[in-house]
Amino acid sequence: MKSADVIRFNPYGPEESGLVEWERMDPAALVAGEPVQRGHIYHEDQEASYMTGVWDCTAFTEHMGPYAVDEFMYLIEGSLVIALPDGTEVRIEQGQAFVVPKGLECQWKQDGYLRKYFMILDGQPPENGVNRSLQRITQPDLTGVASQDASTAPVATCRTDFINASGNMRVGVRAYSEANFPHLPVVENRLVHVLAGTLELTHSGGREFLEPGDTAYIKQGGTVGWRTSPGTRLLQSVYASV
């Protein structure tokens, strides 16, 4: 059976199964807490060490150390603090997005229940190159791209907030005027969260109509058509496999 080109994400996991409890975290990696984590992986490429889905967890605090993967996260519920070696603390609240780059020295501090969408890539970064995205916690400004609704405005404008070391994962915000894009081959895996306006996706498996707060995943290799209303604004995390 051919899998769908578009997958609608549910913050509680699939209706038929919900979220499944995952393996317990290594106690040696923890400063505090006995966390119980659950999740559902909507799409995975084990060979590329790539996955995307939804995850929740009870409170815990990790030791300071290098982050193991490039990870984009959108916080559905809860809050957390990420501490850096210089004493800086970055607080992330419900409804905010952030990216932690692979190798960044940091400490995850979560004092309550948390639920998130995620996109993870554990790739092998190049040995050289300069990329400021790798030296910080990236927090995209979800209001920072003006929506396009005037007749003279471009069809789409975009802002890229994060690019990983290998250049095959990026995160940003795109704004659209009213537009109808024909069915075209999808060249990247794309996690899309609607911030404003509406997005209609048509594909081999049917149609998805997304409003603010809705999230969908568009799989690389499929064929998908887009329709946006005036003022549509999307948060996107994108990964292009080889």
| Fraction in beta strands | over 45%
Structural class: mainly beta
- In CATH, the homologous superfamily of the largest domain goes by the name Jelly Rolls
**Total count of helical runs of at least 4 residues:** 0
Overall structural domain count: 2
Helix-strand layout with pairing:
Blueprint: E1 6-8, E2 20-21, E3 30-32, E4 37-45, E5 50-57, E6 60-62, E7 65-66, E8 70-77, E9 80-83, E10 89-92, E11 97-100, E12 105-110, E13 114-121, E14 156-163, E15 169-176, E16 179-185, E17 189-196, E18 199-203, E19 206-210, E20 215-218, E21 223-228, E22 232-239
Antiparallel strand pairs: 1-20, 2-4, 3-6, 4-5, 5-13, 6-12, 7-12, 8-11, 8-13, 9-10, 9-12, 14-15, 15-22, 16-21, 17-20, 17-22, 18-19, 18-21
Structure description:
The protein is 0% helix and 51% strand. The protein is mainly beta and 242 residues long. The radius of gyration is 18 Å and the shape is globular. 32% of the residues are buried.
What descriptive keywords fit this protein?
single chain, about 240 residues, mainly beta, Jelly Rolls, 2 domains
Summarize the structure.
0% of the residues lie in helices and 51% in strands. It has 242 residues and is an all-beta fold.
